[in-house]
Each structure stands twice: as C-alpha cells, then as structure tokens.
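Box S2. Input/output pair 1.
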Amino acid sequence: MSLELLKSIEAAEVKAVEMRAEAQKEARDILKSVEEACIADERSAALEHRALGQRILEDARATANRRSDAQAGKEAAERDAVAKAAQARLDQAAQVIFERIVRDGHR
C-alpha cells in the first residue's frame, strides 16, 4: 500500500509540475497579448492626437484667413473711399492749378 501511495504522490507531483508549466505559459501569453493591446492603443491614441492637432491647426488657419480677409475687405473699402474722395476733388484741383498757371504765367 505504501508503494501505491508513493506512486500516487509522484503522479500528483508530475501533474503539479505540468499544471505549473501550463499556467506559466498562459501567463506569458496573456502578458504578451496585453502588451500588444497596449501598443496598439498607444498608436491609436497617438494618431488621434495627431489628427486632433491637425484639426485645431486647420481651424486656427481658417480663423486667421477669415480675419485677414475681413481686414483686407475693410482696408479695400477705405482705399476706395479715399480714392473716390480724391476723384471728387480732382476737377477742383485741376481748376486751382489752371488758375495759378494762368495768373502766374506771365512771369
């Protein structure tokens, strides 16, 4: 009976070693898959952040362009107003110049 008991203990020990080896293999596999998932998540987050940064930059450029266009339009309107005012006084300026030439032309 003691021999059978020793054989069953040895069998249990062998089974325990096999179970431990299998558990270690499963743990390594789980760890590997978790690391791969973390790397994939990290890459995905980096891509999302890069895309978000790009969208923010594009929005800022669009805002700057709108402001620049608005300012350019305002300045163009001011230039047109100054040009129209000068155009309106052109006949008067020509008359004054003509009168000076005629008045002082005999010198």
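Box S3. Input/output pair 2.
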Amino acid sequence: MLIMTEDKNIPFVSVIMPVYNAERYLEQAIESILAQSYTDFEFIIINDGSTDKSWDIITSYAEQDPRIKSINQQNKGVVETTNYAANIANGVYLARADADDISFRSKLYDLVKCAKSNTQADVIVGSIEVIDNNDEFVYRELVPIYDEDIKRAMYMRNPVPNGATLIKRSIFQNAGGFADVFAEDFHLWVRLAKTATYAGTGTTVYKWRMNTSGLTFTNLNLSMQKETEYTELLWGDSHPKTISRQNIITRANEYLSLSSRFRIDYKIVFLTDLSRLSVHRIKRGDIVGGFWQLLILASTGRTGLRIALKRVSLVVRGFLHKPINNRPSSNVSTHEEGLEDRSM
C-alpha cells in the first residue's frame, strides 16, 4: 500500500541529492531512488561543479523521468547546495541521498510509514548498512526507534545517518537549514534536540558507503573532533536522567517486540548505550549517578548484568582515562550478549 498526499500536485517527499565528481557510483545512487516502491516524491539532483561526467549522467536520467529536477551550478559546497535544494523543494518532507550511496527500495516507504504513524515526530530515521568501495557489507548501524533513546545516544555520537532521514521541510527551514560547518548533519540534529521530536523506523533503509576518497573518510580525525564538539553542546544544556529498572525492562522488551530480524540487536544497542552513557556521567563527575545507573541496569536480567559488568570492568581497569569507542557495533554477536534472554 502506497502512502500519498491528498494534493496530487504536491509531492509528499522531496529527495535531495548534491553531486560532486561522483561518476563512479552516481548511476547506482540515482537508480536506487527511481526504483523506490513509494512513488510520491520529486527528485532534486544538483551538480555542484563536477569536473567528471556526473552532469552527463544526471541529464540522461532527467530526460527519462519527469520526477527529476536537474540543476547544474558552479561549485558551492554540500551545505549551500543542500540548503538551496531545500528552498526550491515542494515536498512536505525532505529526504537526503548521497551520490555514492544506495537506498533500499523500501527506504521512502518505511520512512513515510513511520512519519504517518508518528505525526508528532519532526525527524524520522532508519538504520543503515555500511559498505565499502566494492559494495561489500562492512557492518550495520542500528538506530533506536524512540525519541528519548535517539537523543540519549547523541550525548556520545551521531546516531542519525543523514541519508536515512526524513525531516519536515518546515522544521528544516525554521532551523535555518544546515550551518556552514563540518559534519553539518550532526550539528543540525543536536540543534534540533531541544525542540524537535525524533522517531526511528526499526528497519534498515540505506547503504552508506565507506568511501576512502570521500569527505568524511579523508577527514576522519576532524569528523571525530567535530562529533565530540557537538555532543558537548548537549552536555552543556543538561545531563541525562537516570532510568528506573521498570522503564529499562519495558523499553528493552519493546525493542524485542519489533517486527524485525534485528530486534535482539536493537535491545542490545539500547542497553549498551545506557551503560556507556553511565560511564560518561562518571567521567564528568557524576560518580554516584553513573554507578547507580549501572547498578540498576545490572538488576534487570542476564543481558543487562553482562553489559553492566563489562562496563564496570573497563572503569575499574582504568579505561576512564582513555578514549572510549562511543560507536556501538550493531553487528554484535547476540549469543555473546545474551541472545537466550528473550525478556528482561
């Protein structure tokens, strides 16, 4: 079943794809959008001063599909290009797609379905698979489905993959769009954390390419630095609250009830984020609160106990004074993390 807007002249979604020298992967990226099972969208592709054959590829597709709005411009950078595309978009929601990534055929359908089910949500986000330059699977990033869980993860990392999002155009524009900073997407998600509501689809919708020649990969240290800098904006405003035992149990079982083959992993990501955030609280001087949250987590069942004990061991062994890997691997071995524990 397709979800459409009431006004047939206004697309529900505007897909935005800025392009710069992406000829190697561009056809695959464009075709993955045109093949979407959900069809109520316009597709804005802007060639941002490419010096390769990107524009030729774009025009060849634009001649075949009227949903494509193709624009050729001098190089202005991804931030200005994306903001411009948002300003000329007609959709109720905006969706990003990078020119070297792949969208699952169900991406827009899953995002729109979640938006329709969570009308109060301003930003909808799905999980992603990370692939290499040869389209080979590397690992999976699972995004929590609840607003408070997504925002809790923001205290440690960027849990919102840009190409797997749907954002209300009005919210994006009211926020002033992307700021002209590095890692502009996470900067926006943090800025919106105070006022916007997030929701996750509980499905995998996008393949993000770990492109060794891409901007993020070639500036990995800067990217990590900016990610840490933006999380500080959240810590400066408020600190995470302690979650009760019953609420942890309820939420963990809600993740187990997801109609997804990764539901165990969603639960583990939730519990692992909670344990890691407890350590961050300890590092920032909230020793009682951090250890109390770990103790509560440990009391919730075998999985919670195992994750809490692992985190405590890191603290005791001096890992407090070393950089902590804040990005949980969603491609965990569920047997090692207590797969047999089907409930809390």
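Caption for Box S3: Residues 1-6, 324-344 have pLDDT under 50 and may be disordered. Residues 263-283 form the longest helix (21 residues).
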